Amino acid sequence: MDILKEKILTEGIALSETVLKVDNFLNHQVDPSLMHEIGREFQNRFEEKGITKILTLESSGIAPSVMAGLLMGVPVIFARKRQSLTLTDGLLTSEVYSYTKQEINKVCVAHKFIGEDDTVLIIDDFLANGKAAEALIHLADQAGAEIAGIGIVIEKAFQEGGSALREKGYHVESLARIANLEAGKIEFVKEKEHSNADV
Amino acid sequence: MDILKEKILTEGIALSETVLKVDNFLNHQVDPSLMHEIGREFQNRFEEKGITKILTLESSGIAPSVMAGLLMGVPVIFARKRQSLTLTDGLLTSEVYSYTKQEINKVCVAHKFIGEDDTVLIIDDFLANGKAAEALIHLADQAGAEIAGIGIVIEKAFQEGGSALREKGYHVESLARIANLEAGKIEFVKEKEHSNADV
């Protein structure tokens, strides 16, 4: 997705060989118009799948997910990392280790929002070691829902999460795939999978 | 805002005299199309104000804010409740007590995203005792930004936050104002402030 890659190149910062800072437009300051384009791209890539719900994780997954949900006409559920007084009944839970926050988060969704009749699209901002995606898969599996695919804004393709999920048979679509972040330079994976994918 | 009030009446649950559960469409499962209408309503109410940035708080403020930001053509910044490894430099911080989570959260924004030249619209999902709004005001004040107004999806008008903010001179616009939640019944404040306000 060209405009996303352009944005990453001009505003992203390779903080280290594993950490890409995109707080200018994705996970602290948010560019709503870019999120809308990202939502449209997810719509294009998954529209044949009969999606009934989008499942994401608070907080950075919410903006791209609600735009995708708006365009696809389906509700978005964001899994919670912490329990609230008003979120109590029939919880499905899983656990995820956050590398950037260095802690284990219990994540949960209310069971009433995902069921056996649902075809779920999982969306997240980043895919690196795949732990967050696995937790979301675990939540959807517990609900008996079908997982139609996993839509990722930025995949760190030099980490194992993406290939592990694809090997398990999941349909993973990442809008920008980073090949490496060495020497402060951001390099994308060269690929021609989609008509709108670029180098 | 009629469709929001209708949604609150049909899908909201008065858990107690102070707690309104709206996890069906606002703060766990999200209705993207309703969020878009909410964004449009904020746009209508604040479009004359020369807004340059929307400031909100993760996580439930994000969905209505990105829709408002999309329609108003301005970036959204969501204040973080927990610090990330990638969010380190030049932080403005404040504190907010969350009644529904019963804890004090340190909230922060990167200074580089809000400055003296900004005219900020603060958006949040709920206004009750006003602590979250005050923390966001405190963040914007530290940045030297002008605060154009405060847009709230649901105000618990029986709590003191809204009147305290209005007494201080802030322009507060709440799309649904709850008069009381007694006996499990949701009652709105009767008002005719806006052409689209209803009983």
Automatic annotation (TrEMBL), chains A, B:
NCBIfam families tied to this protein: PRK09219.1, XPRTase
Name of the gene encoding the protein in the UniProt record: xpt
Major place of residence: cytoplasm
The GO annotation for biological process reads: purine ribonucleoside salvage; xanthine metabolic process; XMP salvage
Pathway of action = Purine metabolism; XMP biosynthesis via salvage pathway; XMP from xanthine: step 1/1
Instruction: Give binding positions for 5-phospho-alpha-D-ribose 1-diphosphate.
Output: 128-132
What job does the chain carry out? Converts the preformed base xanthine, a product of nucleic acid breakdown, to xanthosine 5'-monophosphate (XMP), so it can be reused for RNA or DNA synthesis.
**UniProt GO MF annotations:** xanthine phosphoribosyltransferase activity
- Which Enzyme Commission number(s) are listed? 2.4.2.22
Q: Where in the cell is it found?
A: Cytoplasm
Task: Kindly give the PANTHER family that the UniProt entry links to this protein.
Answer: HYPOXANTHINE/GUANINE PHOSPHORIBOSYLTRANSFERASE (PTHR43864), XANTHINE PHOSPHORIBOSYLTRANSFERASE (PTHR43864:SF1)
GO cellular component term, pick one: cytoplasm
Instruction: Locate the residues binding xanthine.
Output: 20, 27, 156
Q: What is this protein called?
A: Xanthine phosphoribosyltransferase
Q: Does the keyword Aminoacyl-tRNA synthetase apply?
A: no
Q: How does it assemble?
A: Homodimer.
> Keywords of this protein's UniProt record, alphabetized?
Cytoplasm, Glycosyltransferase, Purine salvage, Transferase
Q: What Gene3D superfamilies is this protein classified in?
A: 3.40.50.2020
Family as reported in the entry's similarity comment: Belongs to the purine/pyrimidine phosphoribosyltransferase family. Xpt subfamily.
HAMAP family given in the database record: XPRTase (MF_01184)
Chemical reaction(s) catalysed: XMP + diphosphate = xanthine + 5-phospho-alpha-D-ribose 1-diphosphate
